[in-house]
Design goal:
With 168 residues, the protein is an alpha+beta fold. 41% of the residues lie in helices and 38% in strands. Helix 1 packs antiparallel against helix 3. The longest helix is centred in the first third of the chain and has 17 residues.
């Protein structure tokens, strides 16, 4: 718990740093570094089980799929929240970013290895874990902040998205 609190406070202090505020005030273009910061905030919100903070990083038109939900693609923030909100409350998350590609249209594609960590946790061991590799997320800037508008951990869909976005 103390490690989690330290990590969250560290992320919070980074997001409130004078450089970050100055860049936001100047309206600087979104960068890979700011996207990495946002993905860290996403994971931290999930691991705090803070559904509101997690949801705030999603666009209204989010399209969210995973391997176990391939045929019921969740579209729209309300549908994603209804289906995944309880998972945010009952699991932890680990992301290993493998590639980031900033796209010409201002969006970004991230290829990552997604670890779903199922609670309860005894010591350092979760009751079970699931790994999705590759997982693809797409992000765009809305109201000056990176927000996720696409997520898939379904391997076939992820490979298709990587091909479409020329992320090899």
């Amino acid at each position: 718990m103390n490690l989690r609190r330290t990590l969250v406070l560290g992320l919070l202090s980074l997001s409130l740093s004078p450089m970050t505020r100055k860049a936001a005030a100047q309206g600087d273009a979104p960068t890979e570094a700011s996207l990495r910061d946002t993905t860290a905030l996403y994971v931290a919100a999930w691991n705090r089980h803070d559904v509101s903070a997690w949801e705030s990083l999603l666009t209204e038109d989010i399209w969210y799929t995973e391997a176990t939900d391939y045929y019921q693609r969740m579209k729209g923030r309300a549908a994603v929240l209804a289906f995944y909100g309880d998972l945010v409350k009952t699991t932890d998350l680990k992301w290993e970013i493998q590639k980031i590609k900033l796209m010409p249209d201002g969006t970004a594609t991230i290829v990552l290895k997604h670890h779903a960590l199922i609670l309860p946790k005894t010591g350092d061991k979760y009751s079970s874990t699931f790994v999705s590799d590759p997982t693809v997320t797409r992000w765009r800037v809305e109201a000056g902040k990176w927000r996720m508008f696409f997520y898939t951990s379904h391997k076939g869909s992820a490979l298709d998205a990587m091909k479409k976005d020329s992320v090899d």
